[in-house]
Design brief:
Shape: elongated
Largest sheet: 8 strands, mixed
Number of helices: 13
Order of helices and strands: HEEEEHEEHHEEEHEEHHHEHHEEEHHEH
Helix content: 25-40%
Number of domains: 2
Radius of gyration: 27 Å
Structural class: alpha+beta
Number of strands: 16
Length: 475
Amino acid sequence: MLFPLVRDIRSLSPKNQDVTVRGWVRTRREMKNLVFIEVNDGSSLTGIQCVFDRGGGGNAGAGAGAKEGNTAGTLAALGTGASVEIRGRLVPSPAAGQDVEVAVSEIAVLGPAPAESYPLQKKHHSLEFLREIAHLRARTTTFGAVARVRSNLAFAVHRFFRERGFLYLHTPVITSNDAEGAGAMFRVTTLDPSVKPESGYGGDFFGRAAYLTVSGQLEAETYACALSRVYTFGPAFRAENSNTVRHLAEFWMIEPEMAFASLEDDMDLAEDFLKSLFTAALEDCARDIAFFDKHFSGEHAGKGIAGTLEEAAASRFVRMTYTEAVRELEKAADSFEYRPRWGCDLQSEHEKFLTEKVAGGPVIVTSYPKEIKAFYMKMNDDEKTVRAMDVLVPRLGEIIGGSQREDDPLKLSRRMEELGMKTDNYFWYLDLRRYGSVPHSGFGLGFERLIQYVTGMINIRDVIPYPRAAGQAEF
């Protein structure tokens, strides 16, 4: 039988009812005959206080079947990190900041955590140190809050698309195509690592070059062109040797695709999507967001994390073309490390300037030069720019990238040939344009970027349970 979680126990009305608390000790302190034990099972930001009265007849045992009289030994084992089962009565609490507490009648230590070796003693630990013990960091207040926000927003993603008639699609993790054309892909092979691609793949498992996917977009397009609206939500991999606070080698991508949809439809969906997720964070994770607001809102310019999310959720995202954006940037060209010019890829500092100084909120930039965007994006009539769009948010910069896809087979083939791509490898992708082609659009959202923005965490490696990056795959 499942036992009630701490979050549920804390919401009960104190009517002297019997309860059982199972979790891990966060703190323990003593005052005369009273021992105050804070226990949390990770279900909420705060735990529940359990009070043991040495002189009140309570029974403490070292485990199931413990004998009476072992109170001293059991209490001594109640160090930070120890797992316990506590039975008692739920009573009103005289302490400030909590409505109820547990008057303990029995304590069992299920698993001790010796203070001399347990690395998460009750003190401040840097985020850098916690990355070194990623298998234990979920027990801290910060990473417990990150995990709950991540879980709630993952559910909110599925809820958003389900309510709008999208079908959830599982695209392959192993692929033979490079969706982005950047070439930074992890090869998947059963051959000796010393075998070079030019040696051929006849003896390899798949009989051809295979890689971990960087995107499920191309496969999602095939289903969108049959089922109208689909979305993917799964892992993606990029072999970029980038040791920054914004990059991971393994990350999670959300990629909706819509048939019969223009770039304007794509922008509308992206804006509604982000607003829905911001609202979900505020409503479903209020206590955790308040925690991040207090401890991680340094770059939110006085509004705090909650204020920034509320403002974004209520705003109308500003829309401007790439050309208009560059003109705004050129007015302040001397203030940038990377001087803006038409044709350049916008840097993080440019994106932050557009959101924080020009628009004062989220911005959607459209019609980028074709040279800095992917091969599948639909060309504008000027044949210099493509029907692309990026959603930029304050502090973080780009959070969504999308486009209307090229639906003309001749134009797409010509573009691929310009880029030196082998069209034979993409025959199936071109078939979508040969047979019943329709205008279609989509975008990609890196889930970790979203969690970064919502929590205020600076380093992307702190918003995924086990970060994978260059030189980092310990766990």
